[in-house]
Write a structure and sequence with these properties.
Number of domains of chain A: 1
Helix content of chain A: over 70%
Number of domains of chain B: 1
Strand order of the largest sheet of chain B: 1-2
Number of helices of chain A: 11
Order of helices and strands of chain B: HHHHHHHEHHHHEHHHHH
Distance between the termini of chain A: 41 Å
Distance between the termini of chain B: 29 Å
Structural class of chain B: mainly alpha
Largest sheet of chain A: 2 strands, antiparallel
Oligomer: heterodimer
Radius of gyration of chain B: 20 Å
Helix content of chain B: over 70%
Largest interface: A-B, 46 and 39 residues
Strand content of chain B: under 5%
Mean pLDDT of chain B: 83
Chain lengths: 287, 308
């Protein structure tokens, strides 16, 4: 029961970063391997303003959202759009975007190393709370609550607004979306920016209960990718379920066997998905 | 008159012969740079043989390299095996692992493969550290041989020659032809009856073999092997950068990327150790936005313009 609850709480934050990535890859068609770095930037910002100015991460998360949105939008417009335009096919765009976002990822890590080269963690709401007989730290609960709110807002936006409808249309087929009068480039930029925003917010939330280091981003990228593939690319609902599964499995392996094996556990899941359901949990097999 | 197709072979043979004399004139610092260069030439040339035509960015070099080094250390320290026996076994272990990974991922779209290899070195490192801490006891492994830097250099030179010879033969073989068609259009390749998955898996296995062999051969350089040292994710990225910087369309392309980047890397890690990650990132961006076909692409661009 302990494992289930803390696993689900962890999975909630994983769901956020995976949602960010699935928007970027599923809609904007950019395989963003700098996703984890964006998360760490969010976390590092929260840490710095908390320790130097004593600003609560709950305030930071609101401030960082528009900043991350604007920065991601600019990155898409200036750096990624030229790649989208020059690519002759999806395969070439994938290779180019993988290499370009690797470059950006390393660049960001390099920048963060200059700012803060060590492990960072701070203590925020580290008080025990009793939840259905299990004791959990309040910060994990708050982070989970934040993740649920953001996820819910995203879900409503995608399913209840015109812009959300356009985003879903581009996810299904950029070509057909263009034919019915949707501005595909604009919609892709929007999806990419929202993806970056959600990831950075996830970083702020996760920084309240996890110790990080500027170079940890790639681990989160890896986990987000595994979640996205397990849930099915572009599928928000799938990403959430997959994130919760990964959170529970990781927590189980960390408590029952060894905390050093969480990545191996994630890989085992990944392998099973690749072998048995490469189209994702809820995906349909291509005809 | 000799046939034109043999000329590059003779040139390569001549250069190789010359390269063999390097340890007789260089020592200390420059010899160690030469060893590093050869190591990366072998790694990135064999990387390019697979990733060049298929456009699958393999980030598994660090994992296979680590397996090579680690198995040598493990065999010599804990099981009393000779260096040669372990250096012979390790590449086959890595090839087997590459076959499994290839079988699981290369039948699907390229992204799955990239993602799988991305965390591979880290995952194997975690797994081995765990096994060692819980079941094997000892943490570090010693590789004590009477091989010095010069011997390592010559062994690497032999491996590099082997990789080039293999690449040259591949360009003239059915497998190489299949690989080129597959790289241009996988759909077409399937329709003309090429077993695309098998072709990709076979090529991936060769890169695994070479990386583990190189890892095993340079293991004596470390003396003391620890999973944290030999399983370096950074190595995978450096190999990718060097190969792309040089260009993957020609067999000698990676070579032209390895030499400048090794020297640059050497300067930066000594003078500005904090900036290495940043440089890695900037080089990636430079390649994607500035020279997508690498240095060889630039050169053939100049040549084409001059003759025009």
């Amino acid at each position: 029961m302990d494992i289930l609850i803390s696993g689900l709480l962890l999975g909630g934050t994983y769901a956020l970063i995976a949602m960010g990535l699935t928007l970027q890859y599923g809609v904007a068609r950019i395989m963003n391997l700098a996703n984890g770095e964006v998360l760490v930037i969010g976390a590092l910002t929260a840490f710095l303003v908390y320790t130097s100015l004593a600003v609560s991460p709950l305030v930071t998360v609101l401030v960082i959202a528009p900043l991350a949105f604007a920065a991601s939008w600019l990155v898409y417009r200036i750096l990624l759009l030229p790649l989208v335009r020059r690519a002759k096919n999806q395969g070439q765009l994938e290779v180019d975007s993988i290499l370009a976002t690797f470059g950006m990822g390393f660049f960001l890590v390099g920048g963060m190393v200059f700012i803060y080269p060590e492990l960072f963690a701070y203590s925020y709401l580290a008080v025990p709370v009793d939840l259905a007989g299990t004791t959990v730290a309040a910060n994990r609960l708050v982070a989970f609550g934040g993740a649920v709110l953001i996820g819910l807002a995203l879900y409503l936006w995608l399913n209840r607004t015109r812009a959300g409808l356009a985003v879903r249309a581009v996810a299904v087929s950029p070509l057909a979306a263009g034919l019915v009068g949707i501005n595909v480039e604009k919609t892709s930029a929007l999806a990419f920016a929202i993806g970056g925003m959600i990831t950075a917010m996830g970083g702020v939330l996760i920084s309240t209960f996890i110790t990080l280091d500027p170079s940890f981003g790639v681990i989160f990228t890896m986990k987000a990718l595994i979640i996205v593939i397990m849930g099915g690319v572009g599928d928000i609902r799938g990403a959430i379920v997959a994130a919760l599964i990964l959170g529970v499995v990781e927590t189980a392996v960390a408590t029952l066997i060894d905390p050093g094996l969480t990545l191996a556990a994630a890989y085992t899941i990944f392998l099973l998905v690749l072998l048995f359901r490469p189209e994702g949990l809820f995906g349909r097999r291509p005809a | 008159m000799m046939p034109a197709s043999l000329r590059p072979l003779l040139v390569a043979g001549g250069l190789l012969g010359l390269a063999g004399f390097v340890p007789l004139v260089a020592d200390g610092y420059w010899l160690s740079i030469a060893v590093t260069i050869l190591m990366y030439v072998a790694l990135s040339t064999s990387w390019a043989l697979f990733s060049g035509p298929t456009h699958y960015i393999a980030l598994s070099t660090g994992a296979f390299f680590g397996i090579g080094g680690y198995l040598v250390g493990l065999g010599m320290s804990d099981y009393d095996q000779s260096f040669w026996a372990m250096a012979a076994i390790a590449p086959f272990v890595a090839t087997g692992l590459a076959a499994l990974i290839g079988w699981a991922t290369l039948r699907l779209s390229g992204v799955y493969f990239v993602i799988f290899t991305l965390g591979l070195a880290e995952m194997i490192r975690n797994l081995i550290s765990w096994i060692q801490n819980n079941f094997l006891g000892s943490r570090g492994l010693y590789v004590l041989t009477d091989l010095d830097e010069r011997h390592i250099y010559w062994m690497l030179l032999a491996i590099t020659a082997g990789v080039f010879l293999f690449g040259w033969r591949l360009g003239r073989s059915r497998l190489g032809f299949a690989l080129r068609i597959l790289g241009n259009d996988e759909e077409v390749a399937r329709h003309v009856g090429i077993n695309t998955a098998r072709t990709k898996i076979l090529m991936f296995m060769t890169t695994g073999f070479v990386a583990a062999l190189v890892g095993a051969v340079v293991a004596p350089r470390y003396y003391y092997i620890e999973p944290n040292v030999v399983f370096s994710p950074e190595l995978s990225f450096i190999v990718v950068i060097m190969a792309l910087l040089g260009g993957t369309r020609r067999l000698y392309g990676p070579l032209l990327g390895v030499i400048p980047f090794t020297l640059l890397w050497e300067v930066i890690s000594v003078s500005f150790p904090n900036a290495t990650t940043m440089v890695l990132g900037l080089t990636f961006l430079l390649i994607v936005y500035g020279i997508p076909n690498g240095i060889t692409g630039l050169l053939s661009g100049f040549a084409a313009r001059r003759s025009a």
